[in-house]
Amino acid sequence: LDQRAAAETLARAVLRESDALGYAPLRAEALLMLARTRDELVDPIGAGELMLDAAWAAEAAGHERVAAQAWTQACHVLGYAQGEHARAFEAARHAEAAIERAGRDPLLASQLRQRTALLHAAVGDLDRAVEDATAAVELAGDDALERAASLGALVSVETDRGDYGPAAEHAREALRIYEARLGPMHPELLVPLTHLGRLAVVRGDGATALPWLQRALSVVGTDDGQAPATSWALLGSAYSVLGANHSAADGVAEIVERGIVVRQHVITQALELGRRDLPLRQQPLERKAELGDRLAGPASLDQRAITLGHPALGHHPVQRQE
Measured between alpha carbons, how far is 225 from 91 in angstroms, rounded to an integer? Predict the structure, then answer.
């Protein structure tokens, strides 16, 4: 959390410098950088508006690559974090146009298809979601990390559609890529590890789910306020699946309590961000609390918890500076 806050401070400094220079393409890049830090700090309203600002600034400056990136990420934040699906689909159309103007870069197209796959899943069109996610994997080509990110989106929508076999295979492939490229303890491993735990839980196999989810928590650290809440909730579900006679059943109370603590931390953080003076359109703090609650993940540990969307379940593909 401290590192993300430091990144925001640096991003704001870059934005001030770009304003002083008066160079429009640099300002667009700085706005996108700041938007990404707000997204990392679990501020979907701030991130979404800043991404839109970055997109329009990039288009005005003729900086088509940054415009494509900003519209693509706005599609994700508006559609997933804010639940504003109509605005998200509109952002996706702008992203497609910007990608076309930027020369049809397949990696940019892959990143967009990852987001549109999850967006179609959010509105219940799972067939189209799988179609877009499959296209994202193909467009990633030989870029291993982009392929792993695309596989994360594909696993998420395959699981939603009940295609558990292919989902497990794709989650393991993504895990192998991340381990080979980033090492065994990189935070990006949270996505495939949580996917594998989720798949085991939905199949009622708590014994298989536990080691996946415990490892998911280990790679991010249990004091992180953003991502682990869903892993904790799933871990509690896995314990429940095992039944009261399992030797680990005594740990259920601790798991539930930790999940609640992480969840409340994210809600509080969202409220605090809402009180800060940001150069964007404000919305009531109650709205920020609602969004923080959604991002923190489900409170209950029943089977419904594992069906909810969350960044750790593939809704937050790897973001890398080009």
Answer: 29
